[in-house]
Specification:
By secondary structure, the chain is an alpha+beta fold. The protein has one domain: Beta-lactamase, CATH 3.40.710.10. The chain contains 6 helices and 3 strands. A hairpin with a 6-residue loop joins strand 1 and strand 2.
């Protein structure tokens, strides 16, 4: 699991999914059970899966609030990993505070070359915190997508914290 979270290793993610849940179909069933009605797992290709900010927020709530799918020990383990993301991935939600747990994603659309850039997680400052999902598409470059997300997170943090 550490390679999946710390290094965004899609092969490690697929291996864990196959070993622990029984494959992509099982993951889709969990998403359906969580009423993530706008999320579709693409069998075998993570980059072609689709989702929405509201669906990703449902997923974050399963991680940060009591859950029937994830034990408290597993939640704590995953969150701990999300505080140790590789330094070259310290962008996105990371811009909101020095105290964050987060996961980023990025890829080109494979057709026109525009970038899809995402960042989700929890931002904490003192005794205040908030969950955040930032999804950005149609970016000319990966860096442009990162900048959009970081501006949104900074504005959110200024307002909420």
């Amino acid at each position: 699991m550490s390679d999946m979270i710390l290094s965004s290793d899609n092969e490690a993610t697929t291996a864990l999914l196959n070993e622990s849940l029984g494959g992509f179909e099982s993951l889709q069933m969990i998403f359906d059970d969580l009423d993530m009605n706008n999320t579709t797992v693409n069998l075998g290709n993570w980059g072609n899966s689709t989702t929405t900010a509201s669906d990703q927020m449902k997923l974050l709530k399963e991680l940060y609030l009591p859950s029937e799918y994830i034990t408290e020990d597993s939640q704590n383990y995953i969150i701990d990993l999300m505080t140790q993301i590789d330094e070259d991935q310290s962008w996105g939600v990371y811009a909101g505070s020095d105290d964050v747990s987060f996961k980023n994603g990025w890829l080109t659309d494979g057709v026109s070359g525009v970038w899809i850039v995402t960042s989700i997680g929890k931002v904490t400052q003192g005794d205040k915190s908030y969950l955040v999902v930032a999804l950005s598409d149609e970016n000319e470059t990966e860096e442009a997508g990162r900048q959009v997300i970081e501006e949104l997170v900074k504005i959110s943090s200024d307002y909420l914290l």
